[in-house]
Amino acid sequence: MSSAIYAALHILLSILIPTANIPVIVILSKLLKKKRCKSYIFILNLAAADLLVGLMCIMEALDDIFDEDFDKNLFFCLLRLCFTVTPCIGSILTLLLISLDRYLAVKMPLYYIKIMNRKCVGISLAVLWVVSFFVGHMPLIAPSLQHNNYTGICGLFYAAKSDYLYVLCFLIFLPALVTIVCLHMAVGRIAYFHHKRIQRTRAISGLPSNHPAHSSHFKAARTVLIVIVCFTLSWSPYYITGIIQATCTSCKLVDLLKDILFVLGEANSLLNPIIYTFYCRDIRSYLYQHVICRRRKVKPQGLALVQFTNIAGAAIHENSTLAQISGDTGHNNLSILTCNGEYCKGAS
């Protein structure tokens, strides 16, 4: 595939990722003023990290278009790569924090408020970004991770040694993936036990089992499956191929890593706002009430008085207004205007 195709993909991601994450940031900022929910802070941080990934896709697109102009200097190449890798690490680690937050909320609901206080949340986010910045900028901090013979092609394998990929894979990706899977399996198991307990209690009480809580386990399992599958499919091909390339000197997978597989990993920043926010009931309700309904709502601008001749009669009711107009020629013309709250409908 040519550089123009990868440039088009990066331009598309640079448009779609901010478009999906900016509304999430705005909605969560307003919800945090009304509800002091710690989970919203982590989701807000995830949206901010994904937004940075989308902005860095612009630099990736410029690199694909003007390939020969940006890749001459090793320092500037590593600087661009580090600025791209850092928000990706921040996004992955935020997914880990969200999983841990949900596990604590389900496992220890009585102690959750004491554990996840404002100080703990602030410290965890500060540590997250310090680790992301340090690991993301390791090729610039440690010259031993830089390639000695730089050929002018700006890519992670071209500019940095394979040892750096080992750090990203075995220090960030694999621990985060294993922890997310284990935490979500634990949450699903707890939800399943709650589901069985509710079902047993309703059976003893003689109540029907087709209660909304009956399907809560299956909804939780579905959400967990979507989370794990999307995260795994987005980043696993990149790191698995990278490990193969690092251990196999005769393999030629560098171009595949540089282009399509890294784009696939960046696409996870587009999936995150859909999975972690639009599945949230509060955010979904806020989006519907303040964005969708506001476009459909018709606000009355004033009171229009229309005078007709030969008015047969009028009747005023308590909750609605009915005006019936009849002509002298024998042909009836009926106009009904019903107002209820903020919505008005007209029919004739």
UniProtKB/TrEMBL annotation:
Membrane-spanning ranges: 6-28, 40-61, 73-100, 121-145, 165-192, 220-240, 260-279
Keyword Transmembrane helix: yes
Membrane topology value: Multi-pass membrane protein
Subcellular localization(s) per the UniProt record: Cell membrane
Start and end residues of each G-protein coupled receptors family 1 profile domain: 20-276
Keyword Transmembrane helix in record: yes
Gene3D superfamilies named in the record: Rhodopsin 7-helix transmembrane proteins (1.20.1070.10)
Keyword annotations of the record: Cell membrane, G-protein coupled receptor, Membrane, Receptor, Transducer, Transmembrane, Transmembrane helix
Cited Pfam families: 7tm_1 (PF00001)
Family the UniProt entry places it in: Belongs to the G-protein coupled receptor 1 family.
Name of this chain's protein: G-protein coupled receptors family 1 profile domain-containing protein
